[in-house]
Amino acid sequence: MKPTFLVKRLSTKKYLEKNTLITTTEREPQSLRYPSITFCPNFHKDKSDIIDVLKESEVEKLTPEALSEIVKGISYSRSEILLHFSHNWKLGGYSDCARNNDSLWSTSIPHPFASGTCYTYNPPADNKPGKWSGYKIYIKIPELAFNAVNKTEAEVEVLKTDFLMDMDIFLHLKSHLIYYKEDDMPNMIRVENSLLKYQEETSIVFNIENAKYINKDEAKCEASESFLFKDCVDELYTKNRDWQEPWYWNPNIDKPRSINKTQVLNFFNNEYYSGKRMWIRDKIYQSKKDLQIRGCSLPCNRSSFVLQYSYIPRGRIDIGWSESDFDFALSVWAKNFKIKYNSEIYVCDETCLIGEVGGNIGLYLGISFMAAVDIVIDLIKSFKKYSMGLFS
Asked: CA-CA distance, 139 to 161, in Å (whole number)?
């Protein structure tokens, strides 16, 4: 019997190939933090972007206070856009405190040309399983946003729908908002406005999927728990200057907010439009792959959202005011509190290698011991035959 040592063929090959597989589990946490939700309506129709407004402004220093007044003059307020916004809504109760509680909202202008002023609602606490909760949102398109003079109802509906198409709505984890127009980013998703119906309620049910990937040469990702993809992306756009935009300041980036109006306008009027800067203007169209090439790896630990859309016809919407008061209605709910967890693991890691090496060594030693026993038995038989032949 000839023993065969299998370690090289079985264990080492598996380990060196670094093949991976995805394991999936589904768990229900004790509580769930609803995603933040952001609304980004465009500036007033006669104001194309904040740069043009700054050119016309007599303000020289763009202090937060001065800029706040400028932004107010070109933006639709939160209450102008959101006729109603409630969280933890239940049948029979229409608390509007979420819309009017300033401590639950933040305001930003993530893109000077495309975003307008964005309003982000951040839930203050987790929801418990089994509690009927969600967002109830009623959107009113401001009359200043369109000219309804001599327009039919059908024409007004088209104008209001066009305004909504230009208003971006995002669901995202807190502090993970990246303003984009195309490719979905980690930890967030853009609501498909074309699926929202005029004077009907669109019910959006979301599922959350968490994933943990391995940082590999062929699929690099950032494994650090403190890494924020948003911070990396924001830093890309300030890479060749030592200041941040006065209307969009990220405190996690070690660069001050510029208050120098001349400095800001010179940058956007001159360098901004040169070839090497053009991609900054188009940052809202950058894909995840583009951003990875430019130096921002995706986080290894990231979440994604899956949305399902359904509709409540106009006549069945149960609200406490006339149906004509709103233009678009949304309800956002968690399908359930079960979260899918996808984990990437190695087919054979260090533990596997040690286990298989040990097993193979044990097998080898076992076979060797059996071979040794066979040799002893053969020797005994040979000696017995020899002895019998000697004394017969």
From this structure: 11
Would you state the structure tokens that stand for residue 233, as one six-digit string? 């992306």
Residue 211 tokens, joined:
């994933």
Regions in the chain scoring below 70 on pLDDT: 1-17, 88-97, 129-132, 270-282, 318-324, 349-392
- State the sign of the Cα–Cα–Cα–Cα dihedral 351, 356, 358, 359: positive
Strand (E) or helix (H) holding 36: strand 36-40
Pairing of strands 118-121, 105-108: antiparallel
**Predicted model pTM:** 0.82
User: With DSSP H G I counted as helix, E B as strand and the rest as coil, what are the percentages for the chain, rounded to 5?
Assistant: 35, 25, 40
Helices and strands, number each (H, E), in the chain: 12, 14
Q: In b/e form, how buried is each residue of 289-303, taking b as 16+ CB within 10 angstroms?
A: eebeeeebbbbbbbb
Cα–Cα dist 346/126, whole Å: 34
Beta strands in 91-242 (DSSP E): 105-108, 118-121, 135-139, 168-172, 188-190, 201-212, 221-222
- Per-residue pLDDT tens for 27-48? 888 888 889 999 999 998 777 7
